[in-house]
# Entry
Amino acid sequence: LLAIVSIALFLILFIAFDVEREVLTKENIVEPMRDIRRALLEADVSLPVVRRFIQAVSDQAVGTGVIRGVRPDQQLVKIVRDELVKLMGGEVSELLFSNTKPTVILLAGLQGVGKTTVSAKLALYLKKLGKSCMLIAGDVYRPAAIDQLVILGEQVGVPVYAAGTDIKPAEIARQGLAEARKKNVDLVIMDTAGRLQARLIDKAMMDELKEVKKVLNPTEVLLVVDAMTGQEAAALVTTFNVEIGITGAILTKLDGDSRGGAALSVKEVSGKPIKLVGRGERMEDLEPFYPDRMAGRILG
Ligand code: GDP
# Structure
């Protein structure tokens, strides 16, 4: 009898408590949503991306019961964090490898974002995974880039195919790929030319990249994005994705002050994941992209 009474009492208490349980409403999320919106904008996420995200999260949050012992705003932050992580791919996105040697990785991006540095970093990263690599120097518009890649290649112990600057990038790609096949390497990474700003991405550059892509038939086309790009990242990623089709991105200079809002824009506008991040100027400073860590950084 005592047991039955105890169970009944427990049920009554449970139901009573549950009925009184708080639910997230349009009204009680207005204030915290405003703070979250501010945090996203401060992290330099582009405005249209912020708007879409806030709308989606609000729709999802309204009507959700608040977990016992948790304040409604805390619960909302958890929903936002989970959504951010999901939006950025959830888990680490691994690099893809082709079934036939060599796997080709094409790097694209604006000038100064860290493409040349990332080319060599990536070669070292893959070398540490036991893969043999070769680099192709394809930035013909910045002569120093070729010398820079040759030096970095030596530093990380990876051969670099360079053919100077008086040659079309697609021809360099063709020759480099032939060389890679001769060397029987597992992977080829090609550095390409960039322009100064997103606005100046011109047709000639995109056509050249398309030609290079056709020659290489790459498994990965990775857009290198400077974490400081901020708001412009959305337009930049859209342009490259529409024009050449990317498979993912590498976010560089995350060791800087930037909260990294660009990371959110990349996935939101292209549907493609960030695969790696650069965290410094040393060759070892390249690591996988962890969406959960990034969500924390963006929310501040
Ligand atoms: P590219 O024009 O895209 O090939 O850019 P570079 O590879 O020449 O890099 C431009 C500058 O950014 C160089 O001074 C690099 O050392 C620096 N850089 C590249 N990646 C990073 C990074 O992750 N963190 C920091 N702090 N600097 C970086």
About this structure: The chain has eleven helices and eight strands. The two ends are 55 Å apart (CA to CA). Residues 109, 111-117, 145, 194, 252-253, 255-256, 278-281, 285 surround guanosine-5'-diphosphate (CB under 6 Å).
